[in-house]
């Protein structure tokens, strides 16, 4: 049985029409298929491959660790150099109140852990999220996701979860003395690439402090220079109590984490001990890849590169069918006039070798998240092709 038949027969599908590209290899900003075609990955594997595919330093770190050891013990029992070394580097880039890391395998696991940590530390059970927010597809993460299209098929979910309007001061009183935590994305991703307003975010932080609720920032998509800052919270003068990470963290390897203070993490040690565990979280190969990724990000002006991507995108994307360019840095959304135009643009760009982000659940928004390593000439030519394609159908 060939690979395509095997894929459609034995791999569980999540839609009736998968993209179906048959991948041969990937390198830098490009993906190559078995039919010899070259594609520009303009969404970085959904904000994962910020350093491009198979960055040499990441590949080297993976190979070096594979030659040492793979999995040896469930999380937190054996001292493993890749975990400790990476945790030290990561926390060195964070405020003193974010000095401890719990490694997991993915973004939704990071949010699950963050929610449990907030409940355990505060002794409370109420959560506040935001309409159109997205935090993952497992039951806890889905419970605080503010999009009914994802939630409704799986109701009932966690009780006592309340949703407020993003960027609105109305309803902040619902964050009260029974609230364990407020969870949000500093820039809503799946909800339409909507940045939080600085004054509003600071008001949410103040309200949490007033009632003793924790503030969780979901930086799964916004982290690691995607928005120009190493983490998006730096642009808001607000520090969360817990931060969840994933996507670009592992440089293409599966990796996630939630970060908080040593004080808050104490609650995971008792009643009972080992009350939040993972078998593969902090896998040594993923940690080695993550360390190489962060080291490379810190060694060059990747924040400035993200800002440059935004500036060029706003200059090049001016066709009449484009109603708005939203977002920050290399986390951008191109809003088009209608669903038909959006579908036409995404499909034709795919035919021209440009992979863009579009789903049925955001049917007029094209998400743009090119790798931060993309050369300016390629960036401009790709954006010009997208712009010409929009013009063609307007």
Helix content: 25-40%
Query: What is the structural class?
Result: alpha/beta
Low-confidence stretches: none
Order of strands across the main sheet: 4-12-11-10-7-5-6
Written as H for each helix and E for each strand, in order along the chain, the element string is HEEEHHHEHEHHEEEEHEEEHHHEEHEEH
Give the overall form: globular
Annotation, overall tally of beta strands: 16
Content of β-strand: 15-25%
Please outline the major beta sheet. 7 strands, mixed
Cα distance spanning the termini: 44 Å
Number of helices: 13
Compute the average pLDDT.
Answer: 96
Radius of gyration from the CA trace? Answer: 21 Å
Tell me what the structure shows.
- This protein has 394 residues and is of the alpha/beta class.
- Helix content is 35%, strand content 18%.
- It has 13 helices and 16 strands.
- Strands 4-12-11-10-7-5-6 form a 7-stranded mixed β-sheet, with helices on both faces. Strands 1-2-3-15 form a 4-stranded mixed β-sheet.
- A hairpin with a 4-residue loop joins strand 2 and strand 3 (38-41).
- The longest helix has 17 residues, at 376-392.
- The N and C termini lie far apart (44 Å).
Short description:
With 394 residues, the protein is α/β, with parallel strands linked by helices. The protein has helices spanning 3-10, 44-47, 56-66, 81-91, 107-122, 139-143, 148-151, 198-211, 262-265, 284-299, 302-316, 339-351, 376-392; strands at residues 23-27, 30-33, 38-41, 100-104, 126-130, 161-164, 179-184, 187-188, 194-195, 214-218, 242-245, 256-260, 322-328, 331-336, 354-355, 365-368. It contains 13 helices and 16 strands.
């Amino acid at each position: 049985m060939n690979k395509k038949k095997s894929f459609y027969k034995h791999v569980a599908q999540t839609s009736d029409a998968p993209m179906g590209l048959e991948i041969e290899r990937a390198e830098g900003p490009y993906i190559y298929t078995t039919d010899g075609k070259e594609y520009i990955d303009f969404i970085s594997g959904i904000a994962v491959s910020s350093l491009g595919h198979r960055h040499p330093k990441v590949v080297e770190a993976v190979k070096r660790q594979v030659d040492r050891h793979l999995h040896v013990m469930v999380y937190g029992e054996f001292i493993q150099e890749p975990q400790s070394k990476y945790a030290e580097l990561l926390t060195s880039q964070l405020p003193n109140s974010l000095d401890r890391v719990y490694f997991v395998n993915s973004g939704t696991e990071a949010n699950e852990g963050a929610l449990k940590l907030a409940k355990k530390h505060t002794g409370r059970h109420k959560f506040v999220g935001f309409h159109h927010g997205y935090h993952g597809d497992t039951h806890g993460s889905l419970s605080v996701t503010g999009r009914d299209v994802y939630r409704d098929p799986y109701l009932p979910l966690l009780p006592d979860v309340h949703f407020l309007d993003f960027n609105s001061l109305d309803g902040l009183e619902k964050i009260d003395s029974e609230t364990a935590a407020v969870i949000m994305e500093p820039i809503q991703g799946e909800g339409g690439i909507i940045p939080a307003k600085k004054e509003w975010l600071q008001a949410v932080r103040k309200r949490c402090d007033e009632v003793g609720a924790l503030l969780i920032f979901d930086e799964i998509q916004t982290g690691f220079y995607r928005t120009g800052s190493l983490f998006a919270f730096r642009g808001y003068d607000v520090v969360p109590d817990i931060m969840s990470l994933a996507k670009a963290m592992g440089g293409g390897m599966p990796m996630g984490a939630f970060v908080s203070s040593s004080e808050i993490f104490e609650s995971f040690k008792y009643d009972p001990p080992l009350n939040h565990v993972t078998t593969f979280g902090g896998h040594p190969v993923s940690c080695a890849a993550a360390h190489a990724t962060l080291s490379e990000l810190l060694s060059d002006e990747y924040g400035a590169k993200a800002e440059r991507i935004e500036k060029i995108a706003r200059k090049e994307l001016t066709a009449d069918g484009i109603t708005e360019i939203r977002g920050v840095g290399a986390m951008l959304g191109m809003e088009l006039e209608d669903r038909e135009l959006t579908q036409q643009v995404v499909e034709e760009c795919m035919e021209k070798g440009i992979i863009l982000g579009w789903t049925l659940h955001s049917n007029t928004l094209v998400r743009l998240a090119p790798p931060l390593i993309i050369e300016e000439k390629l960036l401009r030519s790709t954006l010009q092709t997208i712009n010409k394609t929009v013009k063609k159908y307007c």
